[in-house]
What does this fold into?
Amino acid sequence: MNAKIKSISSNFDIWGDFLWCERYGSGHINDTYLTVFNQAGFQIKYIIQKINTNIFKDPLALMENISRVLEHSKNKLKGCKDATRRALTLVNTH
It folds into this structure.
């Protein structure tokens, strides 16, 4: 599993060295993984999720909607202490 998730994560704009991953949560629709990267000596965590296309027939539209919701959340948090830590951030692919 580590090799497959490492390979998949290389498609995203994540810098640093892949350290490890593990299944995350107990969802029954999508497959979710916690990944950890070494970035300048710090272990930085990312969530990678495989969208179940049997349920979500249009993944592009789904991601566009998620992006809009996250942008709205960030705008609501502007000026708050630790605003960047309070809202999820999507990581783009290359």
The chain has a mean pLDDT of 93. Residues 59-77 form the longest helix (19 residues). The beta strands are 17-23, 31-39, 42-50. Helices lie at 2-9, 59-77, 83-86.
